[in-house]
Amino acid sequence: MEQCLFVSNTEGLRIDAWLTGQMDGYSRSYVAQLIKDGLVSVGGKPVKPSLKVEVGMEVQVDLPEPIPDEAEPQDIPLDVLYEDHHLIAINKPKGMVVHPGAGNHDGTLVNALLHHCQGRLSDIRGVVRPGIVHRLDKDTSGVIISAKDNPTHEALSQMFAERQVHKHYLALVCGRTEDSGRIEEPIGRDPRNRLKYGVFPDGRQAITLYTVVERFNKYTLLDVEILTGRTHQIRVHMSHIGHPVAGDPLYGKGDKLFAKAGGQLLHAKHIEFDHPITGEPMAIDSGVPGYMEEALKMLRERGL
Fold first, then answer.
1. DSSP conformational letter for 247
2. Measured between alpha carbons, how far is 100 from 129 in angstroms, rounded to an integer?
């Protein structure tokens, strides 16, 4: 929902302060988050909070759609890889959004988990994102862990922060990569496109390791381990080194060859960690999804 506001006689104010005064019912912290998310622009370009407003300036504000106060349980089938009293591991299908948000009020993993777990999920991240410790992009399939209670959630969050959770992905990328590699480039939001992230000097540290699993003439199947969990990390890093994930419409070419896959060929295949409550070593594997098996079979048969 876009709003256009015009500056009349408040020249000299920072845009975050000016905008707070113009938007009744919205706090300054909410306005600051809108700016941080690239949802406030002037002349089509996202602004910084320090920008000084000038008389006659037109300010566009792209307000997110309201989301429900609370996610509702829905009877959606789940591929459960592991479950106990403290946590659950799901093999998330491609196309499923993790939690409700603008444009995705239901049909999400959270809606399905609320039904499956009968509401018994941690509430640290609020009523819209119960149990959610980490995320996967909508069109990235694979293993995702959810917490059923707050102590488990807190412990898992700390383990993720301290890199005690080892996450391996299968990624089909364009071109022929080195046999193995390490990408250590900072990632931040792209100021020109709020939907994208990129490598920027002032971004957050991000480390990606990769090893070749199988080579094709024009593509390479990789085992990718991420030591940090930045948004779109694998997609950004692989595109940065000239090997975007095959079928990725945002950071690659969105290759029509993989149209049936419905997006990037990226799958969270394997995760390892010590159980946060029992200390038991956990190794959860989701195998290779059907859409990726079909793509690999096609490449082998066609010699691509």
1. T
2. 7
pTM for the whole structure? 0.78
Of 29, 62, 95, which marks where a domain is finished?
62
* Rounded to 5°, angle at Cα 143 from 139 and 147: 115
Residues 212 and 259 in one domain: yes
**Counting Cβ atoms within 10 Å, is residue 197 exposed (0-12), middle (13-18) or buried (19+)?**
buried
Contact by Cβ (8 Å): 271, 143: yes
Structural domain tally of the chain? 3
Phi, psi (rounded to 5 degrees) for 9:
-140, 35
Among 45, 62, 79, the domain boundary falls at: 62
Catalytic residue chosen out of the listed positions 16, 137, 190, 248: 137
Residue-wise pLDDT for 230-240, tens only, equals 999 999 999 99
Please tell me the predicted confidence (pLDDT) of residue 18.
83
d(CA 157, CA 284): 18
Does one domain contain both 138 and 82? yes
- Please answer whether residues 211 and 180 qualify as being in contact, where contact means their C-beta atoms are separated by less than 8 angstroms: yes
Assess whether 171 and 289 both reside in one domain. Answer: yes
- Interstrand relation of 2-6 and 58-62 (parallel, antiparallel or unpaired): antiparallel
Q: Do 146 and 169 belong to one domain?
A: no
Residue 196: closest CA among 242, 246, 249: 249
203-228: pLDDT as tens digits:
999 999 999 999 999 999 999 999 99
Which distant-in-sequence residues (6+ apart) come within 8 Å of 81 by Cβ?
89, 90, 91, 143, 284, 285, 286
Domain limits at 76?
Answer: 67-162
Domain of 232, CATH number, reads: 3.30.2350.10
Active site (annotated) includes residue 62: no
